[in-house]
Write a structure and sequence with these properties.
The structure is a single chain. The chain is an alpha/beta fold. Helices cover 45% and strands 17% of the residues. The radius of gyration is 21 Å and the shape is globular. Bound molecules: 5'-O-[(R)-(carboxyoxy)(hydroxy)phosphoryl]adenosine and zinc ion (ZN). The site of zinc ion (ZN) has 5 residues, from helix 4. 5'-O-[(R)-(carboxyoxy)(hydroxy)phosphoryl]adenosine (KG4) binds next to helix 5 and helix 6.
Length: 375
């Protein structure tokens, strides 16, 4: 009989629930995104996010159970995101998880959201029967995080899904997260929120369009594995200020978005070749930085595996560059699918499994932790 864990995730602007069997097999995964609510503010509004989580959490959990074809009583444990994230949002999931666990008499497993993102890459690999070899270097790259971890098994003889891992943070952003840079540059260019998906597609069609400006590699003093993206965002800002000929098309795109015309096919005709070249150059710089530092870490630590997770891991150029470069260096690289890259609860249920099997549980005193570290 398999162990079925109900995962609950509410750390940011996605209300999610999922059922995962034995830490490996996704029986259901339901995600209610709040993007439409936060879009007009150009970012996540914490107060609105927690209110929306309150509205969605019950139906989302119910749907996850229905899709998995099980009842609440069939669940073996409840895994819930404890942090990091927005406190008000986290509290909704935690309170609901605690209440379910208490009323059903089931164990409650506290999960770190970042550990969830790491498990997302494993969940994807399990789908095709692969168990990524440890130790590994993992890049988590999203709207809130850009961080590099080394992952080791706590017991080197164990490779099963119930084995515990230890984490060592080896690099992180000094300022903006990579996803945040995408969102800010998109705003500067009048391309709306969130920025990642639209800039990804525009950079793709830009291909070899000449860049109107060049962005060199970012240097960080001290730890060579640290990232920094705010300088790049500022460089885009200065380039736009120095070139007022961008303004008419930026206004035209802002007006289109205000009319609700935010689809790629609607925005592409409003982008000049110069803008496409700029977007491509911005993306080249982000991708180069993420890939170079991650490969450097993998090389220094002599690990066989790279894992890339988080919303920005959905980026096509990032994926193809990693695949090319890792292949050339004889490293295996694993990404979650698009659905498992962005916030979801399957990754939370998967991360809860080894904790449940090793009796790392919480009681009713569990509280949200906005900056919960895993290492
Ligand atoms: O992991 P996620 O859903 O939420 C956070 O925990 O932040 O990531 C959302 C972030 C946003 O900043 C969004 O612009 C970025 O991921 N993103 C992308 C792409 N899709 C989403 N960035 C680059 N390329 C993409 N295709
Ligand atoms: Zn996340």
């Amino acid at each position: 009989m398999s162990v079925r864990i109900l995962g609950i995730e509410s750390s940011c602007d996605e209300t999610a629930a999922a059922v995962v069997a034995d830490g490996r097999e996704i029986l259901s995964s339901v995600v209610a995104s709040q993007i439409d609510i936060h879009r007009k503010y150009g970012g996540v509004v914490p107060e609105l996010a927690s209110r929306e989580h309150l509205r969605r959490i019950v139906p989302v959990v119910r749907e996850a159970l229905e899709q998995a074809k099980i009842n609440l009583q069939d669940v073996d444990a409840i895994g819930v995101t404890q942090g990091p994230g927005l406190v008000g949002s986290l509290l909704v999931g935690i309170t609901y998880g605690k209440t379910l666990a208490e009323s059903l008499g089931k164990p409650l497993v506290p999960v770190n959201h970042l550990e969830g993102h790491i498990h997302a890459a494993f969940l994807e690999a399990y789908k095709i029967g692969i168990n990524p070899a440890l130790p590994a270097v993992c890049l988590i790259v999203s709207g809130g995080h850009t961080v590099l971890y080394e992952i080791q098994p706590k017991d080197s003889t164990r490779t099963d899904a119930a084995a515990l891992w230890s984490y060592r943070r080896i690099g992180q952003t000094r300022d903006d997260a990579a996803g945040e840079a995408y969102d800010k540059v998109s705003k500067l260019l009048g391309l709306g929120y969130p920025g990642g998906p639209i800039l990804d597609r525009l950079a793709h069609v830009a291909g070899a369009t000449p860049a109107p400006v060049k962005f060199g590699p970012t240097k960080t003093r001290g730890n060579a594995l640290d990232f920094s993206f705010s300088g790049l965002k500022t460089a885009v800002l200065y380039h736009l200020r120095e070139n007022p000929d961008y303004l008419p098309e930026i206004y035209a795109r802002e007006a289109a978005i205000a009319r609700g015309e935010r689809k790629f096919d609607q925005l592409l005709p409003l982008c000049s070749q110069k803008t496409l070249g700029l977007v491509r150059e911005f993306q080249n710089a982000v991708v180069r930085d993420l890939v170079e530092r991650t490969l450097k870490a993998a090389e220094e630590l002599a690990v066989p595996t790279i894992l890339v997770s988080g919303g920005v891991a959905a980026n096509r150029q990032l994926r193809s560059t990693f695949e090319q470069r890792a292949g050339a260096a004889c490293l295996k690289v694993f990404f979650p699918s698009m659905a498992l890259s962005t916030d979801n609860a399957a990754m939370i249920a998967a991360a809860a499994y080894p904790r449940f099997r090793n009796n790392i549980l919480a009681d009713v005193s569990l509280n949200a932790s906005a900056s919960l570290p895993i290492a």
